[in-house]
Amino acid sequence: MKRIVVTAPQLTDIVARELDGCEIIGGGHAMTREELAEQIVEADALLSSLSDPLDADILARATKLEVIGQCAAGFNNIDVDAARDRGIVVTTTPGVLHETTADLAFGLMLMVTRRLGEAERYVRAKQPWHYDHTFMLGMGLQGATLGIIGLGQIGEAMARRAAAFGMDVVYTARHDKDASAIDATNPSTAPTRRVELDELLRTSDVVSVHCPLTEQTRHIIDAGALAAMKSTAYLVNTARGACVDEKALVTALRNGEIAGAGLDVYENEPDIEPELYDMDNVVLLPHIGSAARRTREKMTELAARNIAAVLGGKDALTPVG
Ligand code: GLV
């Protein structure tokens, strides 16, 4: 019987259904590094989470591991080269979470530009208020420019939403992307354009990060990038925390170099730079980009089906690389 190690809390009914006939270990709690190191030894498959440290040292302990079914779009926690060297197939869950994650990114953009978190905290604190023409003014999205770093599935879904709200979109990517679906969303916005990062930072009213975390994109938003942004611009990050230098972000916010930030991800999750908690122009969410029930069900199904395919001697459905 194949042994599947589920490394973190999971929708276990779906795992059991998709991997019927296998022995399933875990699925109710996040395994520590020590537990993972112990469990990986005898595992035929891992159903993994984005915070598992699947580095070369841990992978070296596997004796019969055939497949890692990562239940996430990102896989920066996995040493893919080390896995490949050991003949382990790595899979992820693209194509099922991008719309949901773009909803969240868009929500964060609205929250931070229209000061929704701050306004809600104000009301809940029972502060006196009445309608006032000059109260809680924020930035409207109509006519503003959204700069998308990384026009993959999630970036493109974010761009379509932005176009529907009347935003012009520019993006960075290694190559020109097909932007026809974005432009078709709203003929009155400017045609979507690929630009260099410098231009994107200088001209955008909102910069939204949607690239994977790699050695090239680690701290792609650093002190220099933040200084290049307009002082009236906002940063949104729903990708990976380490794409942004969080200490530099704190400094930039403290010095008024940018207007605010909406964050769902952090460099050292779940720890957050302490000063961010006290900044009213910052929205902080607990990495819930894809946390819609049906989306999480589809992610679990896909991760489990990838495992079943590889263990059954077939090609993975959505392998990395
Ligand atoms: C979430 O961050 C994911 O990569 O799926």
Describe the SSE topology:
Blueprint: E1 3-6, H1 12-18, E2 23-26, H2 33-39, E3 45-48, H3 56-59, E4 67-70, H4 80-85, E5 89-91, H5 98-113, H6 116-124, E6 145-149, H7 153-164, E7 168-172, H8 180-185, E8 193-194, H9 197-203, E9 206-209, H10 223-228, E10 234-237, H11 246-254, E11 260-263, H12 274-277, E12 282-284, H13 293-311
Parallel strand pairs: 1-2, 1-3, 3-4, 4-5, 6-7, 6-9, 7-8, 9-10, 10-11, 11-12
Helix pairs in contact: 5-7
The chain binds glyoxylic acid.
Descriptive account of the structure:
The chain is α/β, with parallel strands linked by helices. The protein has helices at residues 12-18, 33-39, 56-59, 80-85, 98-113, 116-124, 153-164, 180-185, 197-203, 223-228, 246-254, 274-277, 293-311; strands at residues 3-6, 23-26, 45-48, 67-70, 89-91, 145-149, 168-172, 193-194, 206-209, 234-237, 260-263, 282-284. It starts with a strand and ends in a 10-residue tail after the last helix. The longest helix has 19 residues, at 293-311. It has 13 helices and twelve strands. It folds into two domains: 3-92 and 293-320, Rossmann fold (3-Layer(aba) Sandwich); 97-284, NAD(P)-binding Rossmann-like Domain (Rossmann fold). Helices cover 35% and strands 14% of the residues. Glyoxylic acid binds next to loops.
